[in-house]
Amino acid sequence: MQDFSIVEISKALAKKEFSSVELTQHYLDRINTHDSQLNSFITVTDELALEQAKAADERIRKGESGVLLGVPYAHKDIFCTSGVKTSCGSRMLDNFTAPYNANVTDLLNQAGAVMLGKTNMDEFAMGSSNETSFYGSVKNPWDTAYVPGGSSGGSASAVAARLAPIATGTDTGGSIRQPAALCGITGIKPSYGRVSRYGMIAFASSLDQGGSFARSSEDAAQLLQAIAGFDLRDSTSIDRPVPNFSADLDKPLKGLKIGLPKEYFAEGLDAEVEKVVQTAIKEYENLGAKVIEISLPNSKLSVPVYYVVAPAECSSNLSRYDGVRYGHRCKDPVNLDDLYFRSRGEGFGKEVKRRIMIGTYALSAGYYDAYYLKAQQIRRLISDDFTQAFKEVDVIMSPTSPSAAFKIGEKSDDPVTMYLSDIYTIAVNLAGLPGMSIPAGFVNSLPVGLQIIGSYWGEAQLLNVAHQFQQATDWHKQKPKGY
Amino acid sequence: MSSLDNETVEKIAKLARLAINKEDASVYAEQLNGILQLVEQMDAVDTKGVLPMAHPQDLKQRLREDKVAESDQRQSFQKIAPKVEAGLYLVPKVIE
To answer: Under a CB-based contact definition with an 8 Å cutoff, are residues A239 and A457 in contact?
Structure first.
């Protein structure tokens, strides 16, 4: 049952081969059996899931249909869920029960999807390994000594281990694509503004974007379809029609122009990962695509720019946690300052503190121009590089991550080394473009991801390009032993 | 750009209202300096005349009609607050 695709599940539910309650119970049992090793969930919502499954079965019985109706999913614990703990992986929100739903949660409820639980993540989505979570690190199901990537590591690990058929994620600098790559699954971050950020706990508002995880591009398209669309409650949501993301899946790739940025195949890339990615690109040539070398000359600046822009926005966003209205409050504060200092000091972990401090410094008097303004100017140059490239090519391909998964603990003491693991994903967020990662092979039995970058609003094309590869190969069908 | 010493780290932490242990200040200083060193690569770029990009879509703020759109949810918001009394959020005494 756990190997069924969304489309297969949906057909089986309609034909009453099994009920949503049976399917949901099956997944809850799997979580119960396997998640003590993986730690991919912070909260498992058994009772609510079975209630939602029952309601979905009722809707199906009444003749309603819908591709996610009765389909279980795992929800990243960054999305507010009314009445359910929403921790964002932080001690600060360990006691926080969201008073309302995120737009994404509302849309999934309307679609009749069944929430299995809330998945583990790096604290406030700040991390690339899931080691910064207050709830402990998540393990990679391909080898539990390794990280699943981050920040949406719980969602990626759960889908890879077949503890959920699909999962939500968010991506600020690679937090969907990098864990998808490291866990051997498919993940898509749409164009900035495509998925509403309402009720999605903010980290860096000009970069954060929700998206989907699945085992195949076909399934990722279905989940993205359900959560995409304009929302008045998000001031940066784009009022633009959402196309049918599945309509073009079967389009042949003959004549597709693929750009390979030379800067993404340079120093720092693991040689074995490069081999896997080059083999995948050969496969695209077999499918009729044309490969063109391109240049994104400012791409090496994307990590430095990101580590000004993201911390600056984070220091501002996270100033709302004051121990007054919700979240952690220290014991017996002697005065207002003591309340702020200790509540925040105790509530935030080290990585979050580092980023708040970098952001505070970059925005402080006398440094604003040198850091924040400069970073925003280079952000424009990075974005212009892509605009230039897309005059020549339809999509851009690269490795998702410079290496396969690394060991738990390997990079956790060195922030800068950790930051460099997002070197190929960050520029996409700075420019606001859609990006995807699909399984392309293995290095030492650990999965390797191929990143596909599209131009603005090109999600349907990305999903098509990914789907055609998955029709010709079976990397996305490989699964970790024991699951 | 300058390098941060422990004192500056403590000053930044104060601006950000973060309690940090004195003995952690030097660790933070080292790590923050590492990050700032990475960021310094920006200095080599000539950005004269480049328009800053605050946002991927260069959006303008959307305006809406000035009428009530949200309902009063004070009770559900107060329910999750650490300390409330008579519909008010409680903080330690500010004025003696």
So the answer is: no
